[in-house]
């Protein structure tokens, strides 16, 4: 299948990064969010990232402009009518994702593949909202997208081999390394990462260490590039909580119970970097 045009849904931290790497790889990209200010914010971050590449000599000004020239923005899902692939990166809410996939199924051409960047929601369940479950797949990028090499490619129960191959090839064209995984709660990445982050929040809640102390232990003691609380702030505490809920519901095992302090921060609107405050404060 020849891919020309890709629609990316959600111009937040993941959608913006995904749109950027797709346009850098030469694809025509349409980026959709629900409000003008959100698409504008997404495009501003992309433009800043590309300008840094120019400053660092990794790209010319002309190349930057060509990348931006391949991108357009929209508020309308109907603009999915002529795309080959959709990569969905909207908020981690099963109902909103299911409704969006049902709409995409109605709008997009028959050959189009519908991929989700969900962190943890079952691909099989998202696919069931469509009449083309064989063309629905998980394409899970890591944050920050322009930097991180991994794409976890998740097969739902009905995902076809052909769909898998197209997404595996696309990931490589985006200069990423795809890894195939099956559709189980949290896949591989977040089944392992999020319990560690959740445990760090428990350690904080129980007074075992301070925010800085816990992060320093993991940075200097385990050579993690970022401590777990700093990483939680990068991911977004709402997303971290949503993933823990999926693990807890999916396995019905108390070892995955979300830490009450994590829930308290989310209830307070302290979502990490994106809201200006999480375990740390950001200006
Ligand atoms: C929740 C999920 O479903 C799955 C997930 O994504 S889990 C999260 C996975 N991600 C991680 O674990 C990230 C862990 N952290 C890291 O790897 C590193 O701290 C980091 C790459 C984020 C930053 O690296 P660093 O060396 O500490 O800082 P810094 O020197 O500022 O950045 C390194 C490079 O990354 C770039 N970078 C950092 N953040 C960036 C961003 N948000 N967007 C684009 N580029 C970014 C910087 O510009 C810099 O590029 P140059 O080499 O051109 O200068
Ligand atoms: N934050 C992270 O580290 C990672 C997140 N993910 C997943 O990526 C998805 C997005 O996460 P983030 O970018 O972090 O969230 P974010 O909160 O930064 O961005 C979400 C964006 O989606 C938009 N949106 C909401 N409903 C929409 C709709 N119906 N149509 C189009 N846009 C809509 C919001 O306005 C917002 O701009 C989630 O599914 C999340 O689980 C995956 C990998 C890593």
TrEMBL record:
It is an enzyme of class 1 (oxidoreductase). Keywords: NAD, Oxidoreductase. Its EC number is 1.1.1.157. The record marks 140 as: Important for catalytic activity. The keyword NAD applies. PROSITE patterns: 3HCDH. Residues 186-282 form the 3-hydroxyacyl-CoA dehydrogenase C-terminal domain. It comes from the Bacteria. It comes from Dethiobacter alkaliphilus AHT 1. Pfam families: 3HCDH (PF00725), 3HCDH_N (PF02737). This is 3-hydroxybutyryl-CoA dehydrogenase. Gene3D superfamilies: N-(1-d-carboxylethyl)-l-norvaline Dehydrogenase, domain 2, NAD(P)-binding Rossmann-like Domain. GO terms for molecular function: 3-hydroxybutyryl-CoA dehydrogenase activity; NAD+ binding. Pathway: Lipid metabolism; butanoate metabolism. One of its GO terms (biological process) is butyrate metabolic process. Belongs to the 3-hydroxyacyl-CoA dehydrogenase family.
